[in-house]
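Form 7-S
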Amino acid sequence: MRVCVSKMTESSRVCLVTWMLMISNRQFHFHHETVFLAVNILDRFLVRMSVAADCFQLLAVASLLIAAKMVSAARLGYIFLSPPLSLYV
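Output:
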């Protein structure tokens, strides 16, 4: 049975963001703006939706994926082709 939480605790958010920074630097070599955007997406999603505690890392990875796509599109000059962030959050 899944336990849904409406608000992530401060300590679990710190832990999750630290994990996001660690994997984005060590494994994916993302730019800092990608990680900042991913944390923004994560926070905006958590404000609107309840998420099971065992899905926090899945949400973090999904946020990193969306942010990476948005940043790479912007760097290539294709920002007009990427959908607005409001579609995801």
